[in-house]
Amino acid sequence: MTFFGVTLVGVNEINAHRALVALAMLAVVIVVRYGLNYAVRFLVSGDGWKARFRFWAHQAINLATTAFVVLALISIWVGPGDNHLATFG
Fold first, then answer.
1. What's the structural domain count of the chain?
2. Could you report the per-residue pLDDT of 37-82, keeping only the tens digit for each?
């Protein structure tokens, strides 16, 4: 792929498509994560056990979205029969 007459090493149509899909997925996950955290904050307000519940709900949301992002990025960049990246044989 060339950019203003300069050949970019390692950048091809497949990698560019994967990068765009990864960025779009990250944008959606960030919006969903903030939406869920806002919903928990809005629905569960107060002190005592509600504050503890709100804290652990935020932790669960953050952990789940992080795990999803890691698995999604792995599936985007390393797929079955993929010979564009180094894979274990």
1. 1
2. 999 999 988 888 899 999 999 999 999 999 999 999 988 888 666 5
In a domain, 48, yes or no: yes
Domain range holding 44?
18-77
Contacts of 36 (CB under 8 A, 6+ apart): 61
Q: Which two tokens stand for residue 30?
A: 């960030």
Q: What's the pLDDT tens digit per position in 21-31?
A: 999 999 999 99
- Classify residue 76 as exposed, middle or buried by CB count within 10 Å of its CB (0-12, 13-18, 19+): middle
The answer to whether residues 73 and 85 touch, using CB atoms and an 8 Å cutoff, is no
pTM: 0.73
- Cα–Cα distances in angstroms (integers) from residue 82 to residues 34, 45, 75, 86, in the given order: 33, 48, 11, 9
